[in-house]
Amino acid sequence: MPAQVIDKGLATSGLLAHVLVVKYADHLPLYRQEHIFARAGVKLARSTLAQWVGVCGVRLQPLVDALREAILAQPILHADETPVQVLEPGSKKTHRAYLWAYTPGVFQDLSAVVYDFTPGRSGSYARTFLENWNGQLVCDDYAGYKACFEQGITEIGCMAHARRKFFELHQSAKSHIADQALQSIGQLYALEAQAAELSPQQRQHLREQHSRPIAQTLHAWMQAQVPDGSGIAKALDYSLKRWGALTRYLDDGRLPIDNNWVENQIRPIALGRNYVQPLIMLSRRQRSAYLRRSDSVGCT
Fold first, then answer.
1. Contact indicator for 28, 19 with CB cutoff of 8 Å
2. Do 146 and 176 meet the contact criterion of CB atoms below 8 Å apart?
3. What is the pTM of this model?
4. Which of 50, 46, 120 has its CA nearest to residue 83?
5. DSSP letter string over 204-239?
């Protein structure tokens, strides 16, 4: 008889995979799965489902570790983080924790993502995950990443965040300056759409010939502006202070213009945020948490 995922357990690997996929990919919490199984005539207590999820987390940890190793072998990474509410075992109060997502660059051959749960948002968690990795990191301007750049990692800025500052200002105040900035940034994105299927060398050539002149003109224009309000001053300041990181993609055809790739990978977490089950995530700090009953863990 082949080895089972759960020793002496009745659940097949297919059933366990179904529970995990429905919970984490389809965002159906365990209490709803319990009702669905019951409707089909199968009695599966929520506590049993929670225990299965926990044990599967332990069994999958070697795969997660291997995935992390493969991702950290890449020269370019994206990183982003999103908050989740966690209910500690034995407590009725929640606290804010974070899920960090790391992926290879959008133009890299390896398409993968690994998530890292941490009890807070300190930049030390990113440094711990990245360890001795020393490549080019695409991220937003969150201060927690700054220490990584002091240790040899190269910062690649996110043009989408810079654009967002002007977009929000234009939406709220119909700023003429913001509109002009959006038009120029839009030209850069139009060129990126043309370059999406090109090789890194071809992409770099296109950027050098067409994107760089637009970026240089935009930079000079920003420096010459006299802000007509604090909002536009902040938007301009955001871009000007980070201009080197924001335009570093122009120097390397392997680099993306923004961090949208990893933000798209982490968006499903936000979609199912109310259903996040901390049972697996707590395992790195407390293995016994895997086997606690769902009513002591919560959010099932």
1. no
2. no
3. 0.85
4. 120
5. HHHIIIIIHHHHHHHHHHHHH---SSHHHHHHHHHH
